[in-house]
Design goal:
By secondary structure, the protein is mainly beta. The protein is built from two helices and 42 strands.
Length: about 575
């Protein structure tokens, strides 16, 4: 057995003691017939104006046969008043406080304490502002605090006829009122404890009048698990300690979340709550597939009206002994594998893989290399946005420069590994063909140039996927121009261009096409055709004084010879 002294400043209610024996905890409940008081508070008016004084009256009743030394505390904005007083057995005392009114400081709070500092009662009142005369309406209620099911009486004193609209939980008024005092009533529905405004509108004036409702209230003051670490198939027993302010039929629900916030278990139970602390137990069989920190979240509802009262979370570790490797179920590279097509040189290669695991995929990595290389380059693959199990990585365009690119994929869950291909991936990788651009030819300067033709010659292209040489002709340097002829024979490396215009400069380029549609251009060369040859006029004799004299002597000699010949014939 054991004993302990109960403090003399405890209020009257049930208390709980926790006793630990040999590492095991026991709970003992006991009732203390201690201090019990009743407090009522009221103000001297319903409505106030800024700057005037309000009078607060507190009536404190001692409900037990004991003498009490207490003090009260009243606060509003910068105002604070503390007053000590004594209460004999079953005595009643009224305290009065004059409090300056301010409307931006919240509610007027008042509280009663033992001299030890233990609070016996804490509450607050609204200081309601008086509406301006121009509003044409003064609205107030019969009191400030109500409980569920209680009737609220609303008074509306109007100075002119108009349309009055009022809304609140359980209240919906839209009516025409004449000058005078009007009364409206409604029943407080099932609500959470808290403040609720009566919103109203009258002829363009809008305002609200708050009231307090003592409704459903619950708080989770404790949660317990039998252990901190669980394994798959374990039964997890959760105990919740829930404090409520009233009796009601309720519902408690719980969900288990894995490290990826996926629900892997749930349970619910109906419970009859009584005022004070309640112990609620839930049990779930754990279907754990991932190692790591798990969470149990829980909520408390007022079952009849399904009002959400409180919630919380408890955490535990889970261990999964995994022997199953990840599954790589699909792989593609920019659709090249699905469509059985080649990748173009300098085209980035997007690798996609669908990878799943019974526990968790820890990492998916792509390993690739260019043709002729011995080692692989690693890229960690990432899950695509919005995807669950599709992982992506891209081989940069700058690496796609050889006839083939080889790759394989490695996935791990932290314990087990899987590869694609499954057997010897480093020596038996996936091979992607790359369509390389053709090797450009070297175009020589034109030869055998005439007035309307010239001969072109170039080096031979040796690519296996050669398709043709296409000759382009242009009249402008740097401009490819238009195709004038295509040669499909790889060894044909010359061509005579005809039909040209004399005395004109031409520019030529040889474009090599491959069977994949890619091409490469040669260097550009130019030459000018010859001018057209014109007929030459007869040469003119050079008439100079000497040539004229020589010709004259020659003529005299010729004439003399002719005369001599004629005389000889005459003599005969």
């Amino acid at each position: 057995s054991f004993s302990f002294e109960v403090p003399d400043d405890l209020e009257e209610k049930y208390y709980k003691a926790i006793v630990e024996i040999a590492g095991k905890k026991y709970e003992v409940k006991f009732f203390v017939q201690g201090v019990k008081i009743a407090v009522n508070a009221w103000l001297d008016k319903k409505l106030y104006e800024e700057g005037e004084n309000s009078t607060l009256t507190l009536r404190i009743d001692n409900l037990r046969e004991m003498n009490l030394t207490l003090f009260s505390r009243v606060v509003l904005g910068g105002y604070e008043a503390i007053e000590y007083f004594n209460l004999s057995s079953y005595e009643t005392k009224e305290l009065t406080f004059v409090v300056p009114v301010v409307f931006d400081a919240g509610k007027l709070s008042y509280s009663i304490y033992m001299t030890s500092g233990r609070a016996l009662y804490i509450n607050a009142l609204y200081i309601y502002p008086k509406t301006p005369e121009s509003a044409g309406i003064i609205l107030y209620t019969d009191k400030q605090v109500y409980t569920i099911g209680e009737t609220v009486t609303v008074y509306a004193n109007v100075t002119k006829q108009g349309q009055l609209i009022m809304t609140a939980p359980g209240l919906d008024v839209n009516t025409t009122v004449s000058p005078g005092l009007h009364t409206f009533t409604f029943e407080v529905p099932k609500l959470l404890s808290g403040s609720y405004p009566i919103k109203y509108a009258f002829e363009g004036y809008l305002s609200s009048y708050p009231i307090d409702v003592i409704g459903y209230s619950a708080r989770i003051i404790g949660s317990e698990l039998e252990k901190t670490t669980y394994s798959n198939g374990d039964i997890i027993n959760l105990t919740l300690i829930i404090d409520v302010n009233r009796n009601f039929e309720g519902l408690v629900k719980a969900w288990v979340f894995d490290p990826q916030e996926k629900i892997i278990g749930e349970d619910e139970t109906n419970h009859t709550f009584i005022i004070g602390e309640n112990k609620v137990k839930l049990s779930m069989i754990l279907n754990i597939s991932r190692t790591g920190l798990h969470a149990i979240t829980y909520r408390i509802y007022a079952y009849g009206s399904f009002i959400w009262l409180a919630s919380g979370a408890t955490y535990f570790d889970a261990e999964v002994f995994d022997t199953t490797p990840p599954q790589i179920s699909y792989v593609d590279a920019t659709n090249a594998l699905d469509e059985n097509r080649s990748i173009t040189q300098n085209e980035p290669i997007a690798i996609h893989a669908i990878v799943t695991d019974n526990v968790k995929v820890e990492e998916v990595a792509l390993y690739y290399r260019k043709a002729g290389e011995q080692s692989y380059t690693k890229i960690v693959m990432t899950i695509c946005p919005g995807c669950i199990d599709t992982y992506n990585a891209t081989i940069p365009a700058s690496q796609v420069t050889t006839a083939t690119i080889e790759f394989y994929i490695n996935a791990t869950d932290g314990t087990n590994y899987a590869t694609y291909p499954t057997e010897n991936p480093a020596t038996n990788p996936i091979v992607i063909s790359v369509n390389l651009y053709p090797t450009p030819v070297v175009l020589n300067p034109p030869t055998e140039i005439t007035e309307n033709s010239m001969k072109l010659s170039w080096t031979e292209n040796t690519d296996a996927d050669f398709k043709n040489y296409t000759i382009y002709q242009s009249n402008t340097a740097g401009n490819l121009g238009t195709p004038i002829y295509a040669i499909t024979t790889k060894s044909a490396t010359s061509y005579t261009v005809t039909g040209l215009t004399a005395n004109t400069t031409y520019y030529f380029t040889i474009r090599v096409y491959d069977t994949g549609g890619l091409y490469a251009d040669s260097n550009q060369v130019s030459a000018k055709t010859l001018e057209t040859q014109q007929p030459q006029p007869p040469a003119q004799f050079p008439w100079t004084p000497i040539t004229i004299g020589v010709i004259a002597i020659a003529l005299i000699i010729v004439i003399s010879v002719v005369i001599i010949q004629k005389r000889k014939r005459t003599k005969k």
